[in-house]
Amino acid sequence: MPNKEEFLKDHPYLFNKEVSRSDFPPAFFFGVATSAYQIEGACNEGGRGPSIWDAFTRREGTILDASNGDIAVDHYHRYKEDIELIAKLGFEAYRFSISWSRIFPDGLGTKINEEGVTFYNNIINTLLERGIQPYATLYHWDLPLHLEESIGGWLNKDVAKYFGIYADACFASFGDRVKHWITINEPQQTSINGYDTGIFAPGRRSSTEPYLAAHHQILAHATAVSIYRSKYKEKQGGQIGLVVDCEWAEPKSNKVEDKIAATRRLDFHLGWYLHPLYYGDYPEVMRETLAEKLPMFTEEEKALIRNSYDFLGLNHYTSRFIAHTTELPENHNFYRAQGVARIDEWDGGEPIGERAASEWLYVCPWGLRKALVYISQRYNNPPLYVTENGMDDEDTGSLHEMLDDKLRVQYYKGYLAAVSQAIKDGANVRGYFAWSLLDNFEWQLGYTKRFGLVYVDYKNGLTRHPKSSAYWFARLLKGGEDKKGKED
Ligand code: GBH
User: Fold this and answer.
1) Residue 487's pLDDT is what?
2) Which annotated residues bind substrate (predicted)?
3) Ligand 1 atom with minimal separation from the 444 CA
4) Could you tell me if the CB of 113 is within 6 A of ligand 1?
5) CATH class of the structural domain 4-487
6) Domain segments of the chain: what residues?
7) pTM above 0.85?
8) C-beta of residue 169 within 8 angstroms of C-beta of residue 230
């Protein structure tokens, strides 16, 4: 492992006392992000059909606190109040996701559900009235349950066709006002956690299915992009892209085998999706390692997927040291395939960064700069957005304590400084979204972890209370002018 003191000497930007708006280009903007299943609730209202997460959360033992998103934080009924909050804090953009089964309840695309369209029209119109730019994600993990049950969901190639029909309906209904579209959020999580570790819906454990689920997500993405470009882009003048997630992989040592292992890890995580979108096929190292497990693209499909994005989004939270290894975990096919060890401490045993509430999340701002610069250099400097970045707290303290989220303020200071450095290094980063506006349903961890800038009081009518970090952003965005709340 690297020596902490020596390593951090090379990262002086982290020790800037404050970041300010002037550290970013004038056109750079700040937003907040959410996703439908995590906040909306109203699972049986407005004609919504069930999704795979409704079914998964009902299976015993899947969710830490046995909860679900039936009510979530009731955003479906409180969207006006929530958008009011976004405006009050001074954010200029809002990234939300559309629930596929609110638009097409059975996913097949035969009959559009007008109540679902009205709900998202209300959101979009309310945002625009407040001068907030909508960034819409078409898929944040909530596949219509009927598609899972009737055709096998992401394991069936036809899912790409149905996704195309759904995307088309969204472009037609909302594209006069939505100018930034994200097809799929973190395809890697659906592939690995949905089909390898099984901790996410649909909860399968297989050594081959993750590669099929990924393949079909790539085709679904490219199908939607091709529809947007041929039918809507010219008229509507918007942009469309994909959001990938990536933990930064820092080589454990200067040894060649560790450096190669770190690059291999990035190829398995980012390259799995970005190589097809850029070159038309998977990274060579995945073909070599996975052989016949990795599906093939036809020449026609290669032409469809190549260059199928106007921008890329990166969701980034944390980093690890990576070493070459041949001792591989038994129960995790994906790590076995990669031949890497993932290390969370410095030389001497100190954690790689301060631990957030989730076990996987350590505060390592330097990794975000490296990840952005890596994507820029490896994929020909595309327009980039940080589409998620944030940390969680354990749900322990009193309301008063939970609102004083000092570590989150530190987190954002460090990570924003890292974004500003990446831009100075030449990365074409155009905007940044904090995850998340509200405390919400954190998937397999239920409501036990809180990622919000705004506290949601689950025991008292789901009332919203901005945390110190929210006021910190408000001051940053208003250029230092003091609003409500106090400095940490
Ligand atoms: C994002 O994924 C999601 O887009 C968002 O919906 C979510 O709320 C946010 O993260 C916070 O988690 O349990 O050790 O196997 C980021 C990628 C995927 C990282 C799930 C952690 C679980 C790791 N995350 N993963 S583990």
Assistant:
1) 41
2) 38, 140, 185, 317, 435, 442-443
3) 13
4) no
5) alpha beta
6) 4-487
7) yes
8) no
